[in-house]
Amino acid sequence: MANTATEKKPNNWNSNTIAGLGLALILLLYFFSANAPGTILNNPKLQIFKSVFISIILEAMPFILIGVFISALIQVFVSDQMIQRVIPKNPILGIITASVLGIIFPLCECGMVPAIRKLIKKGMPLYAATTFILVGPILNPVVFLSTLTAFRSRPEIAYARMGLAFAVALVIGLIVYRFVNKDQLKGNSNPSVQAHSHSHHHSEPHEHVHVHGHNDHRHPRPNKIVELMGHTVSEFFDMGKYLIFGSVLVGLLQTFVAQSSLVALGQGQGSSNLIMMGLGFILSLCSTSDAFVAQSFMTTFSKGSLVAFMVFGPMLNLKGLLMMLAVFKTRFVVLMSILVFVFVYVGTIILEMTLFK
Amino acid sequence: MKKIGIADVHNFLRAIILLGFASLIGYLVLTGDILLYVTPKLTIYLKIAGIGLLVVSLFQFYISFISLKREVIVCNCGHDHDHDHGHGHEDDDHHSHEPSRSLWKNVLIYGMFLLPLLLGSLLPNKALAGSLANQRGMNLGGVSVNGGSAPAELVELEGNEDPAIRSLFKTEPYNKDYAKLGMVLYQQNVIEMKDEWFIEKLQAMNTFADNFKGKTIKITGFVYREDGMPESQFIIGRMAMTHCIADISPYGIIVDSPDASQFENDSWITVTGTIDSTTFHELKVIKIDVDQIEPAHVSNVPYVYPDWNFASKL
Questions:
Q1: Which of A265, B48, B122, B132 is the most exposed place for a label (fewest CB within 10 A)?
Q2: Does the keyword tRNA-binding apply (chain A) (predicted)?
Q3: How far is B9 from chain A (nearest CA, A)?
Q4: Region B65-78 average pLDDT
């Protein structure tokens, strides 16, 4: 019990700090952008905010529903043994399997994160899950085709995007396998103690024998469906609050920080990659549509920085980051962010010196 | 029987919020306003999502009513996922013995879910035009003046068009689609910029700007001004959407007219004129020398959508 308390406090504190920092960053960017402060209450800004905010939520809604429903299905119908049988024992094979899973399940991260969380709890190895989260939104046929068509005049950009995403996810998957403690789920540091504290809290002894309890009271058939729906709902509210908070941040940023002023910050070799990565992070686009946006920067930005935008954005963005904080410990999310940042940056610099020379 | 507890309030609140989202989607789909937020391609998914939300919310109501009579039916209990969220907070509060804090947290969380519902139902749904274009920076679809990359080998399209035209539209192999569209446009008396292929036509004309000099063009869109534009110019543009508003961006053409200052930003007009070219921010772009400007209605379709397969439909 004491363990849980000490483990939980810093975690909450950390994610609060990150949220606070995010807000501070937005305010800062806002003051530096061309808009005079105080326009917040003016109608056009509110209208933009509302439109962006609602649009992002609507756009993500079908996918998050699919995600939480799959997650509930896994919770109710899939056993730990089934997961362990499907995932290959060999870590490298496991990572490669995870990175091509996206080809079969072309989901964006909104749908992926809730399902992944359940899979990890059911015994999917952390390294495989990490790889899948990173590469799934990029390495899939829908995204490949949209990138290829958006850059019809430069197909090498589409190949570079796929290749770099695969390489980055592979390397990070291996690093996680080699160096990171398996237990990185939020609030899961000591499962037995947790479960214990929980039952104390409710003082409901029968809850430990959940399934049996049900069979005693009622027919098993409707129970499964009610259970499924119950999980869907709690999962929906669980992930939904992060999605909505992320949408608020994205909406605020898009309303008050002019994209053009960000773009004007840097055009040089190296710095343009950073700017485009930042833009990808802030815009939080769905990976199926970001290629088209990247294409509109083709005349002003180098190819390497466009690839940086299209690889970094889907792997790490404001909306997705918040959803990951819902699943993983803050420390792990920070570590993953740093790794993604470094490898994508280095990767695009290398691309620029070789393929895009 | 048991008395109504905090868990029941949670249950009902959740059911109501789910129903709210289902209604918001239903309302937007029925009024057609959904197109102000997402592309037509996504609406089918949203219809399914709306129905899904409705079903889930009905189940949640069912669960809420049943749990009024009986203790915990579903998983407010020993399931592993309970630690993360609401229940996680309960844990937290349980340790710190501060119920008011839990109340505030819950108000915050449910408030967050209510925010989109309130904004969605209270504020009018409006198409975004110039005000957002300002944030995004206008795309004129120009071609870099300096040429950028080294000129690749140019190829001529195959087909039964006039060889003279085909040689005009010689291009890099990758630009073939635009060359094909360009040739179609080249043979039209008046090039009309409508909802369909707005971006593609713009791109094709910019790629072969010199070929289109002197051609007549008719375009409808909103008026927009970029900082530092001369009095006699504005941009006539449309907003393009790929997926949702997060990726929306404006596309347009520079209009040159002595009466330019008469037209207010964001007003919708139809411009008829002759194509010429100019440079803007070091990009070579087409512009329109105006013959006639008339006020126009806002398009029924608020945005234009990129069509990746336009070439195969020519």
A1: B122
A2: no
A3: 14
A4: 61
Dist CA A264 CA A176 (whole Å): 36
Where do we find the tokens 């197109």? B35
Q: Tell me: pLDDT of B84 over 70.
A: no
Q: Give me the pLDDT at residue A107, please.
A: 64
Task: Find chain A residues with C-beta within 8 A of B247's C-beta.
Answer: 283, 285-286, 289-290, 292-293
d(CA B185, CA A152): 20
Smallest Cα–Cα separation from A141: which of A178, A106, A89, A109?
A: A106
Whether B11 is in a domain gets the answer: yes
Would B86 be classed as within a structural domain? no
Whether residues B212 and B166 share a domain: the answer is: yes
Q: Which of B88, B122, B156 is the last residue of a domain?
A: B122
CA distance B66 to B72: 9
Q: Looking at the structure, tell me whether residues B116 and B229 fall in a common domain.
A: no
CB neighbours (10 Å) of residue B147? 9
Residue A224 at interface with chain B, using a CB cutoff of 8 Å: no
Please give, rounded to a whole number of angstroms, the shortest distance from the CA of B235 to a CA of chain A: 17
Residues of chain B with Cβ-Cβ distance to A247 below 8 Å are 116
Nearest CA in chain A to B93: A5
* Residue with more model confidence, B38 or A14: B38
The HSE-up count of residue A290 (CA atoms within 13 Å, CB side) is 29
Judge if B53 and B164 occupy the same domain: no
Q: What is the pLDDT of residue B171?
A: 76
Q: Do B243 and A59 touch (CB under 8 A)?
A: yes
pLDDT digits (tens, 9 = 90+) for B23-66: 999 999 999 888 888 888 888 989 999 999 999 999 999 988 88
**Chain B residue with Cα closest to A13:** B92
Tell me the β-bridge partners of A261: none
Are B153 and B108 within one domain?
no
A215: nearest CA partner in chain B: B73
**Inside any domain, residue B90:** no
- Tell me whether residues B119 and A53 touch, CB distance under 8 A: yes
CA–CA dist A185, A289 (Å, integer):
30
Q: Which residue has the tokens 């399209």?
A: B157
Residue contact A118–B81, C-beta within 8 A = yes
Residue B62's region, left for phi above 0, alpha for psi from -120 to 50, else beta, is alpha
User: B145 and B289 in one domain?
Assistant: yes
pLDDT value at residue B83: 36
Whether B270 and B228 map to the same domain: the answer is yes
Measured between CB atoms, does A39 come within 8 Å of chain B?
no
Tell me, yes or no, whether B173 lies in a domain.
Answer: yes
Question: Which pLDDT value is given to residue B3?
Answer: 62
**Maximum average pLDDT range among A273-277, B111-115, B225-229:** B111-115
Enumerate the residues of chain A whose CB falls inside 8 A of the CB of residue B91.
4, 8, 197-198, 201
Q: Do B72 and A207 touch (CB under 8 A)?
A: yes
- Choose the mutation target among A45, A50, A227 for the interface with B, i.e. most B CBs under 10 Å: A50
Contact B63 A226 (CB under 8 A): yes
Range of the domain at B193: 129-312
pLDDT digits (tens, 9 = 90+) for A299-323: 677 888 889 989 998 888 888 888 8
In chain B, the number of structural domains is 2
Same-domain status, B188 and B251: yes
Residue B95: what pLDDT?
34
Q: Do B21 and A289 touch (CB under 8 A)?
A: no
In contact, A298 and A275? CB cutoff 8 Å = no
CATH number at residue B293: 2.40.50.140
For B171-180, what is the mean pLDDT?
78
**pLDDT higher than threshold 90 for residue A34:** no
Q: Running DSSP on this structure, what letter comes out for residue A317?
A: -
Residues B117 and B150 in one domain: no
